[in-house]
Amino acid sequence: MSVVSYEQLRAELAPCALHEPAGGYAPVPVTERLAQAIWFDQRLKRDGLQTADGRRVQVVSPGWWNLEAGPDFRRAVIAFDNAKPQLGDVEVHLHSADWHQHGHTRDRLYDNVILHVALWRRGEQPATTATGRALPQLLMADQLDAPLDQLYDSIDPESYPYDLDSHVGACEPALKPASPETIAALLEDAGLSRLRTKARRLTRWIQRAGIEQALYAAVMEALGFKHNKEPMRRLAERLPVARLRELPAVQAQALLLGVAGFLPERTVAGRDEATRRYVKRLWDVWWKVRDELADRLLSRDEWRLAGLRPANFPWRRLAAVAQLLAAHWELWPKIADALDSQPEPKRAARLASLFTDLEDAYWSGRFSFGSKPRPEPELLIGAARARDIVVNVLLPVAVAQGKLLEQPSLIEAAEKVFAAHPPLESNALIRFTAHRLFGQRVPPRLLRTAARQQGLLQIFHDFCLSDRSACERCRFPELARQFVAKQVAS
User: Fold this and answer.
1) Distance CA 46, CA 39 (A)
2) 108, 126, 159: which is the final residue of a domain?
3) pLDDT on residue 15
4) Predicted confidence (pLDDT) at residue 489 exceeds the cutoff of 80
5) Contact 339, 414 (CB under 8 A)
6) Which domain holds residue 26?
7) Domain contains 104
8) CA 282: distance to chain centroid?
9) SS3 128
10) Are strands 113-120 and 57-61 parallel, antiparallel or unpaired?
C-alpha cells in the first residue's frame, strides 16, 4: 500500500497553480484562497475593470465571505457598464474552466451568482447556471494592482476572513468608544427586539391555527434547520397536528415518512431483521391511507440531503416529532408549566429536556433505513438543537401566547429565560456581524448569552442584509452612536 503524505493530500484537496515571477525568484504557489483574498481586498485596477467580453465593472461591494456551502461570496453589489448595480453572489476560481469542472453548472446553490471571477483563462466554454443563464466573467491576472508575486508576499490567506482588522463596517468606529457594558446593552436590546419579532410572526400562526398547530409547525421548521425548513413547514401543513397527536408513534411515523416521500419500498433484499419488521409496521399503516393522502405528498426533490450530518437526516427528525407527539400530545401545557413551576435557573434546561429525552426503538440506534445499528444510541434531537428550539421557538411562542392571553407574567418569565440563556452554537452570520461591528476586539465574554448572539443576528437582518451601499448609506452607525451617547448620558 502506497504511503500518502499530508502534502499529497493537501495538493489533492486544495490544488494550487505555480506562477513564475518576472524577476526570476522561486515560483509562487497560488491557491484558490489567495485568489479569494485578492477579490475580497479588491487588489484590482478598479477604475478600468472589465469582464472578459469587454463590459465595464464597478464593484460596490465584493460581498461577504461565505464559509458554508455555495458561492464564495454572498450579497455582492456590482454594476455592469452604466446599468443599475445588481445584488448577488460571486464565485472565485483559479481558472475559468473550474466553474464546469467543479459542477456548478448543475448546482442550484449557484443560481444567484452574478459574476464568475477567475485568476486565469483556461478553455472557452462560458459559465452558465443550472437555469441556463450565462454569467459575465472577470479575469483578474491582467487587472491586478500589483504583480501577483508581490500580492503573494503581502497577503496571508490564513488571516481571512475574520482574523484581520480590514473589512470592518462603518459601525466599528462608532462603537469603538463604547464600554463592554454599553455594547452588551445594545446587543441585548437588539436581541429582545428579535424575540418580539419572532413572537409577532407566531402570534399570527396561533390566531390562524391554534397554539398546538402553531407550535408543531414552528418545531418542524426548526428541525429542518436552514436547508429543509420549507419542506418541513409544508409537511406540517399537509399533516396537521390534529391528525397525528393521538396516534401511537409508529403510526405517526408512517404518515410523516409517507407524505414526506421517505418511506422505503415494502420489500428490499439485504435488510436486517429489525429493519424488515419496522418497514412492515410502517406499511401496515401507510397502505390504508396512501390513497387518501395522495394529493399531499412531497417530492423527494424538495429535500436537501447533501452536506447534512447523518444524525440530522430529516427521517430521524420526523421520527423524533412522532415521539414528541406521543410523549407530549399537548406541548403548550408542558411549556407553560416549565416557565411557571420550575425554579428560574432550571427553566431553560427543563424546556430543552422536552426534546432531548425522546427515544425511538429503531431510530435512536440508526441514521438511515437498513444502516448498521450504532454501538451507542444517538439522541434523536441533540442538546444543541434542543437549546436552539428553546430560544427560537418556545420562548417566542410563550411571548406570543402571553400577549394573546393577556398574561404579563408569562411574557416576563419567557424574557427572563431568554436574557439569561447560555450561548447557542455560533454560525457564519454571527461571526460576520461581530467582525463588522468590532473587528478583532470582541471580548469572548461579550457573547456569553444567546440574547446577545440573537442581537447580532437582528442587526445583520435589519441593516447588513438590506445594505447595498457598502456601508455608505447604512443608518446603523448613526443609531449606534446615538445609543452609545444615551448610555453614557444616563
Assistant:
1) 11
2) 159
3) 67
4) no
5) yes
6) 6-159
7) yes
8) 32
9) strand
10) unpaired
DSSP string, 348-375: HHHHHHHHHT---TTGGG-SSTTPPPPS
Q: What is the pLDDT of residues 117-166, one digit of tens each?
A: 999 999 888 899 999 999 999 999 999 999 998 998 889 888 888 877 77
Clarify whether residues 128 and 25 are in a common domain: yes
The number of folded domains in the chain is 2
Asked whether residue 481 is assigned to any structural domain, the reply reads: no
Q: Quick check: bond before 29 cis, omega within 30?
A: no
337: Cβ–Cβ under 8 A, 6 or more apart, which residues?
A: none
Instruction: Show the cell assigned to 441.
Output: 476586539
Quick one: 116 and 217 in the same domain? no
Q: Does the residue 451 lie in any domain?
A: no
| Amino acid, res. 311 | A
Give phi and psi for 197, each to the nearest 5.
-65, -45
- For residues 148 and 237, state if they share a domain: no
Q: Report yes or no: 75 and 89 within 8 Å, Cβ to Cβ.
A: yes
- How far apart CA 390 and CA 454 sit, in angstroms, is 13
- Cα–Cα distance measured from residue 419 to residue 424, given in angstroms and rounded to the nearest whole number: 13
- If asked whether residues 140 and 227 sit together in one domain, one would say no
Give start and end residues of each alpha helix (H) in 46-167: 98-101, 148-154
3-state secondary structure of 302: helix
pLDDT digits (tens, 9 = 90+) for 293-336: 999 999 988 998 887 889 999 999 999 999 999 877 789 999 99
- Cell numbers representing residue 344 in the block: 428560574
Do 122 and 143 form a contact (C-beta atoms < 8 A)? no
Residues 252, 147 share a domain: no
**Residues near 22 by Cβ (< 8 Å), separated by ≥ 6?**
147, 149
Same domain, 107 and 233: no
CA distance linking residue 381 with residue 485, whole number of Å: 44
Q: Could you read off the pLDDT of 363-421 as tens digits, one per residue?
A: 999 999 988 889 999 999 999 999 999 999 999 999 999 999 999 999 999 999 999 99
Q: What is the distance between the alpha carbons of residues 259 and 253, in angstroms, rounded to a whole number?
A: 10
| Residues 114 and 214 placed together within one structural domain of the fold | no
Is residue 55 within 8 Å of residue 35, measured between CB atoms? no
Domain-located, residue 166: no
In 3D space, the residue among 447, 487, 489 whose CA is nearest the CA of residue 182 turns out to be 487
